[in-house]
Amino acid sequence: MELESEKLTKQYLTRFHPYNNFEKFKTNGTRLSSNSRKVFLLKYNKTVVLRKFIFTQKYTSSDFTNDIKQYRKVELCESILKFFAIVKQNVNEVIFIHEYACDGTLRQYLKQNFNKINWNDKLRLAKQLISAVKCLHDIDLIHLNMNSEKVFVHKGDIKIYALQHQNVFNKFKYIQYIDPQYLQNFETYKLNKSSDVYSIGVLLWEISSGNIPFKSESAYSFNLLNAIIHGKREDIVLGTPKEYIKIYTECWQHDSNQRPTIQQVFNVINNIKYNNIINKEEIFEECDKKITNKGKILSDKLLSDLNTTDLFKHYNNLYDKTAKELELISLLITSLKKYLNDDNSVNNQNNLNKEDISINQDDLNDDGLFNNQNKLLNLISSLQSSLVDINEQIEDNKEQKFLYNLNQFFITQFNIQGGTLKDTISSIVYCLKKYIDDNNKNPEEILNEYYNYKYRSYFMSIIGFFHEYGIGTTINYHKAYDMYKKASEDYYYIVVDSSDNLLAKNLLKENQFIGLISLGLLYIDGRGVTVNQQEALKLFLKSVSKGSSLGKFYVGYCYFHGLGVIKNVSYSFDWFLESALEGNAKAQNNVGYCYEFGEGISKDNEKALQWYIKSAEHGNYQAYNNIGYCYQNGIGTLINKSLAFEWYMKSAEGGDSLGQNNLGYCYQYGIGTSVNKNKAFEWYSKSAENGNNLGQNNLGYCYLHGTGTSINENKAFEWYLKSAEGGNYSAQNNVGGCYFNSIGVPADEKKAFEWYFKSAEGGNTIGYNNLGCCYRDGIGTLINEKLAFECFTKSAIGGDSLGQNNLGHCYQYGIGTSINEREACEWYSKSAEGGNILGEENLAYMRNIAFYSYWYWN
């Protein structure tokens, strides 16, 4: 048999080589997997993959020969990995040599490059993927195991591996990509071309999102498998072309007869243009349709000719905990209550013990809640009872009333100030701490009381907030994440949705809103969790679907900064405006910002001021600061420095770190008030301690120059460095100056150059000037007069008077450019107009030279 197989192999392969006749491998290469290595072969002048095959009863040499025969039929397809040769080592072992994909698997490529590619790139990848599978199907070859670990990328282009028998190994490793009909009945159902099409649909979604399908769930979970069988699919990604969504949703239909052929997919995908993209309203419509359809299916199946006992048994067989979510679980409870009210066997519900409203996740596993009728009845009773209890306890217990009032204050401030963004968090923390201090309470004791509170589920978000910002405890992002996660879960809200208790409903609703938004912000910043911008966007959208106006602001925020979605300031403005019209103060402030700077809407300073005032009327401290800035600079109104000072004061007293910095600036330079350097130092200190990098930079200045405090070069350097590390370009220049002049730190010209370079990269004109000096004089780097000239030019054009003087110097003496005395005079003149003494002296010198030259020749 083996001899016959070898004969067939040689008959079909002109690239079959005995081991002794083939190029010896100089090195072992780089290990890619247990049976493959990457090496460079001189014979092909390429980096290739050596893949070892050991023949067994499961995979014989005949299987291998048949695979190679099929491979030869498709190897001319550009999206198939090129086959180079086969090297026979012994009777039962060969090495298959094929093209190496330098960008790794599709999964690796998307992880590393998703933020760099646009929709034209995504469509190109999709077309190449479908073209490759079409090549296989055209010769009746089925891939059998399409997933993003089995698809490769070489120099930005898709490549797939086409040895069919090898593809079937480990096919259950990634169940997200497998035909659900096969998952449902893998003993009798045969994988087919339609199965590949299903996998294509999932891969098209992955290309659109950059994420592994159901990334947050275990790929080996029975619950995930069961949910996929019963129709669970990933959510649509904002900004995706509608035709693209339509074709991949058709591909991942459960019924293989409803899926398109690969030719139909090929035709559609090649005609898609990135213009007709899905918008937010259509996303919500799609979500509603999805929920409604699932709810109808579930309710019809549950309520059709079932008694109460059958209901539990049927539900347990039909759905796992993954599908018990959102409106579906609420629908189930409503149905149960209807049956329970009519069932004479359940007469003693009111005598059941009241338990903590918190539900252990274990209660929702396959052997838990829905296998145990009594436990579910207990849960319903407990939840209903707690709605009454919360009212009674707040009214009767002074301490618990304080906990409730503090939570309400927190909810209000969170919504008004706009959550925990870096530019707003100082206000919320300040207000919360002040509220606690004003009531003579100990934050540590408060946190313990929240933990010990019988129904602490109502307060998960504020507990998470205490952990995130170290109120009454040390900062612990992981605990904050856990608490926000619990607050965001839907199973806390099963019975409440159908309750008439407005207090309990509002408590839990706001608790969930804050949990979802705070969880999203942790994903954006990578605190307590790996950065995942798309997960953050999904959480914000979920909060919107549940009615959060602040959630709409955060969807706009994602569009504004390109977080988890392609940046689109027009969409961003639409989201901000929608939230603002619903009365959200943070969104109103941002609508004002959009009008002031023309972001997503035509610039209109008067409307900017109007929106800032609306936001301020609702208590947003950032808006107070922005109104102050408008009055200081005459934006949408006449300049009025006294009013500017007053608004900055209101903002600063509310804990806004930028307002505190600007109030310090007013005191330092006498804007709308008399100069008071001690107060300037005081407000810069507050701003700096609240994390504002402008305040930190200005505090460094105070310590360096003794403004409102004694000179302390060490502290000056410390605050400059904090500000610089926070991204302040002026502070980065100042840190460079500290290293150059040995201020609070030993002199280090190389580090000075590095910080000047960072500052210049950020566009700081003084940083450009200092970087130019480094290149001109060889400070921390090699002398490069051309680069020096370029830096001085950028600094001068940006308006820095010293940069203008140095650019004049370059033109006067031909440094990095040709000598041009006319240009030198012009730049010295601009420098002098800016008040630079060196510019004035050099301009005078040039004019004297011109005068004596004229006198001499005449």
TrEMBL record:
<feature type="domain" description="Protein kinase">
    <location>
        <begin position="22"/>
        <end position="274"/>
    </location>
</feature>
<dbReference type="InterPro" id="IPR050767">
    <property type="entry name" value="Sel1_AlgK"/>
</dbReference>
<dbReference type="InterPro" id="IPR006597">
    <property type="entry name" value="Sel1-like"/>
</dbReference>
<dbReference type="Pfam" id="PF08238">
    <property type="entry name" value="Sel1"/>
</dbReference>
<dbReference type="InterPro" id="IPR001245">
    <property type="entry name" value="Ser-Thr/Tyr_kinase_cat_dom"/>
</dbReference>
<dbReference type="InterPro" id="IPR011990">
    <property type="entry name" value="TPR-like_helical_dom_sf"/>
</dbReference>
<dbReference type="GO" id="GO:0005524">
    <property type="term" value="F:ATP binding"/>
</dbReference>
<protein>
    <recommendedName>
        <fullName>Protein kinase domain-containing protein</fullName>
    </recommendedName>
</protein>
<comment type="similarity">
    <text>Belongs to the sel-1 family.</text>
</comment>
<dbReference type="InterPro" id="IPR011009">
    <property type="entry name" value="Kinase-like_dom_sf"/>
</dbReference>
<dbReference type="Pfam" id="PF07714">
    <property type="entry name" value="PK_Tyr_Ser-Thr"/>
</dbReference>
<dbReference type="InterPro" id="IPR000719">
    <property type="entry name" value="Prot_kinase_dom"/>
</dbReference>
<dbReference type="GO" id="GO:0004672">
    <property type="term" value="F:protein kinase activity"/>
</dbReference>
